[in-house]
């Protein structure tokens, strides 16, 4: 009997621990979260294609060439509004992470080729499990993202010289923006009525086309490559309800 009583007390204590927070995640709540984004691309690139030389079409693919987008960290901010106790909308943004771009295949010998900044704000709809009074609340979400790129810079002169065997050439880069779906899972833990901590993982099926313009005296060479980025993004945050 005593053993059964102790088990019931422990079970009751566990329930109280989980449900002890007030309505930090209930209908009408607004929450601002600040935290750490880690953007981890699963990248690969098609071989470089030379499109034109001085405006004349070439369309020549250079086999065994490519690039990788490296992992980056940045500061993130999210604003969440609970429309019901279980359904919320969230706007997520952050300081654009700066990704290093490294060569692969024939270009691996050059190491870092350059860098790029990625802007990826997203709008999500989330479904939160359990009652609003529960401290620990996992969720699933889906949404849309618009990604664009700035500061696309080629910094490795050895790569610029060697790409077409023209010493002293210059090279500029640009990357195409795109709309993308976002798939999200995570959980929040309410510390009290106003504060909570959260961890989420998002996946974006994201790709872009990078255009490279090489200038060597009077010669202009335009090339492109399609880069699959497909990042997994983690967000560790602290949130405040107001």
Automatic annotation (TrEMBL):
<dbReference type="GO" id="GO:0055085">
    <property type="term" value="P:transmembrane transport"/>
</dbReference>
<dbReference type="InterPro" id="IPR005618">
    <property type="entry name" value="OMPW"/>
</dbReference>
<dbReference type="GO" id="GO:0009279">
    <property type="term" value="C:cell outer membrane"/>
</dbReference>
<dbReference type="Pfam" id="PF03922">
    <property type="entry name" value="OmpW"/>
</dbReference>
<feature type="signal peptide">
    <location>
        <begin position="1"/>
        <end position="24"/>
    </location>
</feature>
<protein>
    <submittedName>
        <fullName>Membrane protein</fullName>
    </submittedName>
</protein>
<dbReference type="InterPro" id="IPR011250">
    <property type="entry name" value="OMP/PagP_B-barrel"/>
</dbReference>
<keyword id="KW-0732">Signal</keyword>
């Amino acid at each position: 009997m005593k053993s059964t009583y102790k088990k019931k007390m422990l079970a009751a204590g566990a329930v109280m621990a989980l449900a002890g927070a007030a309505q930090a995640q209930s209908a009408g709540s607004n929450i601002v979260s600040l935290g750490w984004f880690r953007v981890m691309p699963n990248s690969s690139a098609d071989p470089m294609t030379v499109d034109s030389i001085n405006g004349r079409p070439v369309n020549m693919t250079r086999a065994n060439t490519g690039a990788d987008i490296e992992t980056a960290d940045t500061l993130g901010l999210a604003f969440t509004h609970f429309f019901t106790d279980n359904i919320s909308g969230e706007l997520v943004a952050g300081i654009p992470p700066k990704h290093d771009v490294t060569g692969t295949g024939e270009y691996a010998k050059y190491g870092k080729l350059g860098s790029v900044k990625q802007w990826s704000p997203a709008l999500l709809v989330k479904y939160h499990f359990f009652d609003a009074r529960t401290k620990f609340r996992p969720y699933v979400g889906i949404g849309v993202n618009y990604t664009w790129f700035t500061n696309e810079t080629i910094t490795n002169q050895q790569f610029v010289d060697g790409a077409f065997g023209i010493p002293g050439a210059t090279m500029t880069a640009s990357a195409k923006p795109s709309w993308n779906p976002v798939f999200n899972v995570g959980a929040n833990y309410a510390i009290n009525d106003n504060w909570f901590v959260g961890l989420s993982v998002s996946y974006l099926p994201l790709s872009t086309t990078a255009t490279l313009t090489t200038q060597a005296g009077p010669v202009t060479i335009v090339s492109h490559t399609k880069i699959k980025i497909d990042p997994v993004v983690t967000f560790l945050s602290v949130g405040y309800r107001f």
